[in-house]
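USER: Study each token:
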Amino acid sequence: MTPQFPSAGADIGRFRVVSQLGAGGMGVVYEALEVNLDRKVALKIISPQLAGDPDFRDRFTSEARALASLDSPNVVQVYAHGEEDGYLYIATQLVPDGDLGQMLTKWGAAPLGKALELIEQVASGLHDAHSAGFVHRDIKPGNVLVRRRGVDTVQAYLGDFGIARRVDAAVTRVGGVAAGTPSYMAPELHAGGQAGIATDIYSLGCLLWVTLTGKPPFGGNTEYEIAGGHINKPVPQLPVTSPLTEAVNRVLRVSMAKEPGHRYRSAQALREDLRDCLQMTHDPAYHQLTSALIAAAGGSAAAGHSAPSGPSGPSAPSRPPGASGPSNPSAGSGSSVPRSFAATAAGSGPSGPPPGSSSAQYASGSGAQSGRRAADKPSRRGLWVVLAAAAVAIVIGGVAALVAGMGGGDGGNGGNAGNGGNGGNSGGGRSAEGQAFLDSDAPTILQAAKDDMAALQSTHLSGKVDQDGQETAADLTITASGDCDGEMRVGEGTAKIRRLDGTTWLKPDRGFLEASNTDGSIDVDTFIKLVGDRWLQADSSQSADFEDICNITSLLEGSGTDNSDTAVKGDVSEIDGEEVVKITNGTGSDEVTAYVRVEAPHYVVKLESTSDQGDFTFGKFDEPFEVTAPPEDEVLDFNSVG
């Protein structure tokens, strides 16, 4: 009789067993040599109990054949499958440096930039698998294999499709074994739901979290406690220390949304957001934050947390006692930590909550974030700045200063008009997460809205206020980087506005100049004669003023939401098909009302201010948006003006 599993040195067809690599519910994995090609492979021998099931054998053969045709640089390649010498097997590419779980256990949580790189690769492989018709159903650190390519690069491969099923398969269990690993399973799977693309995306969000922090998103001593976290607890969030961490938090919230319909529609969409986050790591400001972030996190978020074990038994050795984070090889030649996984000044970032922080603070990002904003910038009236009033004042002041500097246009309507929604439930389709959010108190709702707005890369706002009896309006797309494009309107006149990389350009027309020239400080005729149909480039001081308008984070930092003791929760209604809850903040003439989406992300879709009859809408959240500088020949050259 054939033994259950082979031993080292045994020949199985053209494969010679070298050593055992790991074991799981479906069989044992060996390092083996494909003798005729002199090629090392990972040889998985299927458990005899499963191999003896005719239905399983048919599914296994069909799926292995299909997987062999899946060609992706981030999916472990299938070389061969079949039955030899009484063993049912599948031979795959051998990835030599272990799996992500072992790497996290040995070196601790990955620096932010490296975590994004790794999960972006896994998302790419998952997209390729989904496109070929496969659902993985068990994404976890142990099923992501890693290979070090040089000192600075780690390549990730999504592997072990042993319980993968075709996208259209009706079953959710294989051989009586539940699909998935509890710490990385979507809420609906814990309730007996069916695996699909949405559940894989949820698991990938969990994988991002464990790579960033060294621990799964929800802990517990029993599977029941872990399942309860996935079903009921809020999506964990990094402490917000920069636009980058805000963007990563948004990826976590969308990928790990409780309702499948609120998640990314595809792994490709998730991958694109991760790539956008990676682009932000090239910003010099990101590198300048490193020391402060490491200090704020106590050296490493992995410290004090239990890291996930590899799939094949006990955990690998942990870091030495007293180590506060992954070693930096530049600090000494004796370090064995790979540079590709080390917290260097050019690539590290926040990995988790500061030691001693509460889980509630960590989940909402409201601890250090609120304190930092309050200290950096004084609170302003209302929930947000009265946007158009502030913007018009800056435009008027800027134009007056520019004209005065010259010693002394035609505009257009080039703004991004309109308001968009971002999907979500309306009517009777409120999710359990939405109901829990709605049951929160007003300050909690305000903070959640502030955090979700801060995680945006861009949003469009439009609205108007009454300023000294004259209607002024704004129609702008603003970004997390401080770029913006659109127009302001005063009376019947308009001024185009663009801001890119800290430089601001204005293009006011005659109507705007005449309507805003209330004190007669501008000689409109002289201005038109000198400027014509050209853009004015604001000086550095004036450009800096636009930071408060064009940068989402700066806008929020001066919002006044810290004074939430006056916040009152009102009725639930609908705006553009979105269910919103009314939150009133402030009192008397300084009262501002925000309408906040009930379903995540909890964006503000409308603001109303009693002080100036202001009315603003927010929409087109994170739609593609790009600003370009005006052509040089359309910008006024002050050296040519006498």
